[in-house]
């Protein structure tokens, strides 16, 4: 079996951590039990570019149980958990190409190693697998049934491809499932981002000014958790609707130019480029702490920051100190990459349970219906979204009401009125 991981001796530790995460992923467990019986992915080669974490490992196990031939690479150079990568190779016999801290060339070599399997289905977190396939291996696309995309940044890229007619096969936007973004993005990102910032800095949030750039579901989650720890939260936005929502949720809203002067902590969650630029860094307080929890590190203009810096040094694990030309110091966490994965362990497994359940069920859906779909970006089918919610409630021991026949008739009628 071809693979590239840091050290197979880490595998036993990784296996224990995978099992620990699996205890909080009951929906995936239910899907695995059915997949083992039915083998809906038999004969399917599935190439995945995801964060190599304990939760992802449980998803890979489910896909393999469903009959798929699976290969996995990292969707971010700093998100790989090396013990998990080793365990997947040694104990689960799944080819993995991922090493924490890999450079850009190695990162893309790993993506190409997954594409060498000639996948029928691609599974992405950020769309690097799909974009590389389209740009460098167009001859392999004819074998692809479809793909899935996990995160907001990737969905934005894929919709741009579809709009230009560049997307050559259908992709399901798992990120847009209600059982994904309402929970994973909000509660998962909220908790894990704060976790990463605190692990990296050990600084007190209470009484500080915490600037959240972007008030999508991820930004809402981070703002909620920062406020809960006693920070005064400031939101920056470009969307007037989201800005109004942030105001009515009780946050201060202002442009980044103004927020830069008062913030103690900054976190970008927009999916866009250069959200914090060199002119913002120069306005920051001495000692400001800057992080990113959007998919790519491009949200921070690190090249611009270097241009206005006199010195850079690593002062703690995952903390780089930039001494600016104005002699103030600014601290960048996790090299500007996903702070929740680089400085912590990513989302809790209980919330990833629903996200990855969508991934597994959408892979099954593509096998059955992929050839019927056009080359476009699709929402997760509603019946899949609802079934994931139902399985999660069942696993939590929670029951809900059902509509009576009279109620169903009322809701489907225009004649009954008041």
TrEMBL record:
May play a key role in the regulation of the intracellular concentration of adenosylhomocysteine. NCBIfam families: ahcY (TIGR00936), PRK05476.2-3 (NF004005). It comes from the Bacteria. It comes from Thermodesulfatator indicus (strain DSM 15286 / JCM 11887 / CIR29812). Keywords: Cytoplasm, Hydrolase, NAD, One-carbon metabolism. Pathway: Amino-acid biosynthesis; L-homocysteine biosynthesis; L-homocysteine from S-adenosyl-L-homocysteine: step 1/1. NAD(+) binds at residues 151-153, 185, 214-221, 237, 293-295, 340, 347. GO terms for cellular component: cytosol. InterPro entries: Adenosylhomocyst_ase-like_sf, Adenosylhomocysteinase-like, Ado_hCys_hydrolase_NAD-bd, NAD(P)-bd_dom_sf, S-Ado-L-homoCys_hydrolase_CS. PANTHER family: ADENOSYLHOMOCYSTEINASE (PTHR23420:SF0). This is Adenosylhomocysteinase. The gene is ahcY. Residues 185-346 form the S-adenosyl-L-homocysteine hydrolase NAD binding domain. Its EC number is 3.13.2.1. Pfam families: AdoHcyase, AdoHcyase_NAD. One of its GO terms (molecular function) is adenosylhomocysteinase activity. Belongs to the adenosylhomocysteinase family. Substrate binds at residues 53, 125, 150, 180, 184. The lineage of its organism: Bacteria, Pseudomonadati, Thermodesulfobacteriota, Thermodesulfobacteria, Thermodesulfobacteriales.
